[in-house]
Sequence to fold (145 residues):
Amino acid sequence: MADDGMLDISPELRLPLSELDVRASRAGGPGGQHVNTSSTRVELWWDVAGSRALSEEQRQRLLARLAGRLDRAGRLRVVEGGSRSQLRNRQAATERLTRLVAEALRIPKTRKRTRPSRAAKAARLEAKRRRAAVKRERRRPPGDD
Fold:
């Protein structure tokens, strides 16, 4: 997290912290009295569809790649409640949001088609011959009924 009110996602994208909606609530599960009285679970919301920090290309990429994680309004939700500290949970949720968005924005390299080498083809055929020989040896001898 940057000190200037911006969250660095990637070299191309810096997200204003004002676009993030942070809510704290009581964490569920075991933990005794501390869990029942303190709001340490953190929910982090970010409106992908309405963000002004995104270019139209970035928005379309995020909406497509994160479609399963977005609600109907196009908002991304990250929840963290693993720590007893609200601050640590907030930092963890922010880091997870950063990783999710950065990974969704990453453009995969296009695969360059290659052909197997002559040695690779020969090795494959030799392996097939060996396997066929093993199976041939397992058969019953002819006339053995």
User: Anything to note?
Assistant: The chain is about 40% helix and 20% strand. The mean pLDDT is 88. The radius of gyration is 27 Å. Helices lie at 33-37, 56-65, 86-105, 118-138.
